[in-house]
Design a protein that fits this description.
alpha/beta; single chain; DNA polymerase, domain 1; Arc Repressor Mutant, subunit A; 3 domains
Length: about 375
């Protein structure tokens, strides 16, 4: 088995019953993730909160086989792994006690450079909310062009923030509630592909992880911890955006909210935060910049050119051949022509989207860009 330190770093996140806090304690006791797996079962059982059941599971090293599979996926898809003890791990997240031990990133943003603003809100945002979000980011692009806009790729305010950031030329980062082998919801794939050119996609989840509801709740702490400030655009009386705002407060980060009309359902959450001094009221980008003491930046943001990918594997080349000389084919038709399973074809096409080779059209129709 490989002695790659990454093997053990991923492996420790796969042990059932060992969350981020306990994983850190184990590593603090033994010195490294590798040492955790090489310690005897008897000694592991003596560590606080471990006991005989967990120590047996750790000593069995069953999870390392799955970790090896993930390393192969990471290398094949040019994904950057960030372990919490390393310099490239986002320093803001290091300050949060329950931050993920391991992160996986695809994109070109520097997660330790510049200003980071989280934008969250309801999945049922109104035209008022969309307009507030779009106007704010247009202003931010002029006054603070390097600011990284962070959100969760969900319907409503999230995707509005990502699209508005891309359109305004701001870098934007999507925090996912699943692995980097898929995009959920699928309708946001084209936006995700655009984000890779200036920003990226970040997750704590391994490939093949389904977008289950509890993952999105966990995802919220990454958005809150990664950012200098969190802005709630619109929110009902309950919802994930309020959870994110509360987490941000617990991390001693600034929280802001746009006010809404009294009685409007989608503004009740924002108004509640403001009324109870849990968020500062803002009306525009100037208010936010002033509250954060962020001096306006006069120079234009550096334009990051998309990387030119030319390295296609044999399977990808086969899909290119199926699409060549067509105006586009539906996913099932491509899979049939290539004699690949639909699931495998979908994964290959997603990676080819990231490489800029194909474009996904409505109805799961794909066509070549090259």
């Amino acid at each position: 088995m490989s002695e790659n330190p990454l093997l053990y770093q991923i492996g420790i996140t796969l042990i059932k019953g060992v969350g981020p806090v306990l994983a850190r304690n184990l590593i603090a006791y033994l010195g490294s993730a590798e040492a955790v797996f090489k310690e005897s079962e008897k000694n592991l059982a003596k560590i606080p909160e471990i006991g005989p059941v967990l120590s047996k599971q750790i000593a069995g090293q069953q999870v390392l086989q799955r970790a090896e599979q993930e390393i192969a996926f990471i290398e094949k898809n040019k994904i950057q792994p960030f372990f919490y003890t390393e310099k490239n791990y986002p320093y803001r997240l290091k300050e949060c006690p329950d931050a993920p031990v391991m992160l996986y990133f695809k994109g070109n943003a520097d997660l330790n450079k510049g200003r980071f603003l989280g934008i969250v809100g309801t999945r049922k945002c109104t035209e008022y909310g969309k307009e507030l979000c779009q106007n704010l980011l247009k202003e931010m692009a002029k006054s603070s062009p390097g600011t990284v806009i962070v959100s969760g790729m969900a319907y409503g305010v999230d995707i509005c923030a990502h699209k508005a950031a891309v359109d305004a030329g701001l870098p934007t980062l999507g925090v996912l509630g699943h692995g980097l082998d898929r995009i959920y919801p699928q309708t946001h794939r084209s936006t995700a592909v655009r984000m890779l050119d200036r920003g990226g996609l970040l997750t704590e989840y391994l490939s093949e992880t389904n977008p289950d509801r509890q993952n999105f709740v966990q995802r919220n702490r990454i958005i809150a911890g990664l950012c200098d400030a969190t802005l709630v655009v619109e929110s009902g009386a309950k919802g994930g955006s309020l959870i994110t705002a509360n987490i941000a407060q617990s991390y001693n980060r600034d929280v802001f909210a746009f006010p809404g009309r009294v009685g409007d359902e989608q503004s009740s959450g924002c108004n509640h935060l403001i009324k109870h001094n849990q968020a500062a009221l803002i009306e525009n980008a100037a208010d936010l910049l002033s509250a954060m003491s962020w001096e306006p930046v006069s120079e234009k943001a550096t334009i990051v050119q998309p990387a030119l990918f030319i390295d296609l594997n044999e399977e990808e080349q086969q899909l290119v051949e199926q699409l060549r000389h067509t105006d586009g084919l539906q996913l099932n038709e491509i899979a049939l022509r290539a004699s690949f399973p639909v699931s495998r074809t979908s994964a290959l096409l997603l990676e080819m989207e990231f490489k800029g080779v194909v474009k996904c059209l409505p109805g799961n129709v794909y066509k070549l860009r090259i």
